[in-house]
Amino acid sequence: DADVTQTPRNRITKTGKRIMLECSQTKGHDRMYWYRQDPGLGLRLIYYSFDVKDINKGEISDGYSVSRQAQAKFSLSLESAIPNQTALYFCATSAAALAGPWDEQFFGPGTRLTVL
Amino acid sequence: AQKITQTQPGMFVQEKEAVTLDCTYDTSDPSYGLFWYKQPSSGEMIFLIYQGSYDQQNATEGRYSLNFQKARKSANLVISASQLGDSAMYFCAMREGQRDTGGFKTIFGAGTRLFVKA
To answer: Is the pLDDT of residue B104 over 60?
Structure first.
């Protein structure tokens, strides 16, 4: 079974609709992240959370909100979807490395979202 | 200014040959980590290799090695003995700093698409 799962894997929605993307992990990691990927731009950080009570905005948080329901669950919401939010969305997790201030991230399979 | 630059949008390599994917980075933080990820056509992100800014030796993981030149701020990925399954998008990423300075953010390059020819 995958350690980091995302649901749905694909979603087509209309402008103005509210949509939630969900992420679950069984790795026992305390840190979770949401990224979006657009062609030619790599991955950009939307929100990140170091534990259940710690949520931080990333590079491109406008138009998005998140909820960390439990250590293992981190959901991303688009309150009113717009076409330029069409992208591939990744959830990632990490645990603090023992040897340094950086930590390896493990990615989910991605959710392809299309906003018409 | 770009913090992570991958100047090769696409690369071709013959099967069984070595290939180098370029990555340059920009940071003023003395503490950072450099990562390479592979993204095949199926879309998932696969971690390949990691290099810490204080590491004295270049990182290696199987057929992957990271040519880390700190003074030049480059972290090129070398894939030896290319295989057809290496055809994918490759992303260089940098993770800066420490939490109390607002760090722990990962910045990704735009990626390089590698095509391995039989």
So the answer is: yes
